[in-house]
């Protein structure tokens, strides 16, 4: 795969941070690109429609990151980010972190990689959970956290683009939904090769996992059921199984009925999580009785707990999976369970990976 490198690019130092002079040059190039973009009247969220515009998007992604590098002292980085274009020109903000013990991203073998969608909201939580494990008595070396997010124009962490990217296609998909295959193509065809060739240059990639929450959990299940060979582990936190009249269940059914299985070492794992308050929420202090009644009814209709338990029962004997685990967290809601599921997922994936035998 060709190296992602804009014109005039200066190779970063071994520890992943360019020299001060190189960062300054990249910042100047970023400003030049912005000027060109303004002159061409190419809107920030507009998809490039010409070869020239697509080439611009490809070359601009790293230069746009120069201002972040300018804020990092040389040798002090344990994370970095890029704006990486998909095949249709849409930009994804890719944030990457690695163990604090590393002095370089080069020279490592079989590095585990943990991908997370909704990356703007998940990156720091996942990274800090991994960094804390570095002080644990059984720390096994950790790995890479790769967050897949979006360039944002406001302070809201969840981009509206997620509605399209994270939902499966169906005959009844509303406008602006059903684009999960496009994001999967980006992960498989662009992001994974980029991580292997550029982020982990002169290192090798080991096992790989994907984490998603809510719509992201739905996306994780869709990934497992339609592209089971893409990853070694899929983590579905509070998956929106109910979405679009339970369309994901048709993909699950096909997955379970598919003939043939891969060897134990090749079969993916599935981890599922939920919070008890997602289906049985308490009334908030000061919440109006009618508002609470409507919110409680909505939670009961979505049936997050029941749907997760039912899917676990159907899949736990599936020969196409190495293992299926389900954990519910009492007294956690749809938002607070994120930290619980992320911490458990990265700990299991990085620290407790024992081969084909299902984890207890």
UniProtKB/TrEMBL annotation:
Signal peptide: none annotated. GO terms for molecular function: hydrolase activity, acting on ester bonds. Keywords: Hydrolase. It comes from the Eukaryota. InterPro entries: AB_hydrolase_fold, Esterase-like, Siderophore_Hydrolase_D. The keyword tRNA-binding does not apply. It holds the Pfam family Esterase. Belongs to the esterase D family. PANTHER family: SIDEROPHORE TRIACETYLFUSARININE C ESTERASE (PTHR40841), SIDEROPHORE-DEGRADING ESTERASE (EUROFUNG) (PTHR40841:SF2). This is Siderophore esterase.
């Amino acid at each position: 795969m060709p190296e992602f490198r804009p014109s005039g690019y200066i190779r970063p130092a071994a520890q992943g941070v360019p020299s001060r002079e190189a960062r300054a040059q990249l910042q100047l190039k970023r400003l030049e690109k912005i000027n060109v973009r303004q002159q061409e009247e190419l809107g920030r969220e507009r998809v490039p429609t010409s070869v020239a515009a697509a080439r611009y998007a490809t070359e601009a992604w790293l230069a746009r990151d120069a201002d972040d590098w300018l804020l990092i002292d040389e040798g002090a980085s344990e994370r970095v980010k890029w704006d990486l274009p998909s095949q249709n020109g849409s930009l994804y903000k890719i944030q990457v972190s690695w163990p604090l013990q590393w002095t370089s991203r080069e020279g490592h073998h079989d590095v585990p990689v943990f991908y997370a969608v909704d990356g703007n909201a998940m990156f720091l939580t996942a990274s800090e959970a991994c960094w804390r494990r570095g002080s644990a008595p059984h720390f096994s070396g950790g790995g890479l956290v790769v967050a897949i997010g979006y360039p944002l124009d406001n302070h809201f962490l969840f981009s509206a683009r997620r509605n399209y990217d994270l939902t499966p296609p169906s005959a009844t998909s509303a406008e602006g939904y059903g684009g999960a295959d496009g994001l999967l193509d980006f992960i498989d065809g662009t992001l994974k090769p980029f991580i292997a060739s550029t982020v982990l240059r002169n290192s090798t990639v080991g096992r790989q996992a994907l984490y998603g929450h809510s719509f992201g959990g739905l996306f994780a299940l869709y990934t497992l059921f339609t592209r089971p060979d893409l990853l070694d582990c899929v983590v579905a936190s509070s998956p929106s199984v109910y979405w679009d009249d339970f369309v994901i269940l048709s993909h699950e059914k096909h997955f379970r009925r598919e003939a043939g299985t891969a060897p134990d070492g090749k079969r993916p794992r599935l981890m599922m999580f939920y919070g008890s308050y997602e289906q049985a929420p308490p009334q908030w202090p000061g919440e109006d009785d009618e508002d609470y009644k409507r919110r409680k009814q909505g939670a009961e209709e979505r049936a997050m707990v029941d749907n997760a338990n039912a899917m676990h029962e159907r899949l736990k004997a599936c020969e196409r999976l190495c293992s299926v685990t389900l954990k519910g967290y009492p007294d956690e809601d749809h938002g607070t369970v994120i930290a619980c599921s992320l911490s458990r997922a990265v700990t299991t994936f990085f620290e407790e990976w024992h081969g084909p035998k299902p984890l207890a």
